[in-house]
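Reviewers of the previous submission asked for a worked example of the structure-prediction workflow described in the proposal, so we include one complete record here. The input consisted solely of the amino acid sequence. No template or homolog information was supplied to the procedure at any stage.
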Amino acid sequence: MWKVTVVSLLLLLPILTFAAGLVPCGGVGEPMCQSCHVLQLIHIVVNWLIAILTTITALLIAYAGLRLVVSVGNASAMTQAKSLISNCLIGFAIVLIGWLLIDLVLKSLVNDQVYGVWNQLQCVEQPVSTTS
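From that input alone, the workflow returned the following structure tokens.
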């Protein structure tokens, strides 16, 4: 029941999803959409997902800690709570280590003086065809 409530809140209250400004182009006062905006969108979504993952991980660890404190004397409940904490930390570490490995490989392959920093995307105005 609580899962339905959370999903309903996220769907009904878009401000809670922190998704404002997700698409970097095409809006009022924004440039026209180009192919490089797809990469910017992917970058924004990845950062958004990591922020949401951090929040969910913190909440799950707090929940598991509460279960650990409440389960005094119940060995199976304590084991489940410890397992939840370790699984949360392992999953979070896998995501962050994956991102750090990608960052390390791309920084070693891309020359910063020529191409700039790989994870700071900048769109330039694309030429428009004048033939009709």
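The longest helix spans residues 36-70. We consider this example representative of the routine output the project will generate in years two and three.
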